[in-house]
Amino acid sequence: MAGKALPDGFSQLEEFVADWIFPTEGERLAKRISTDYAEIERFYSAAIGAAPQALDLLKERSATEELPADEARLSGLMLMLAEVAPAVELFGAPLEAGAYDPRKMEIVHEQAD
Predict the structure, then answer these.
(1) Separation between Cα atoms, residue 59 and residue 62, nearest integer Å
(2) Residue 51: which residues within 8 A CB-CB, separation 6 or more?
């Protein structure tokens, strides 16, 4: 992607734009469970530090207002952060040990965020 993909102040997240933004929860889940835990930790470490500033920026928008492309990408990264946070903060792995494997469940209807 040429130029800046994210709003000013989020350059530390630019490297994740191409591979960590997905339009649905199912796709975010698939990314989490198929990604090496060290890579999840690397994304989490970069994103968690930017989260307060990102959420402050995003909450200034109306829920019905379409986000500019750079802010939409930032929002996508924050949604992915929410997806991987339990893996880092609770499980210490992409999947919780002993939990039901979510790949065995079929998502029959899903809307993009």
Answers:
(1) 7
(2) 78, 81
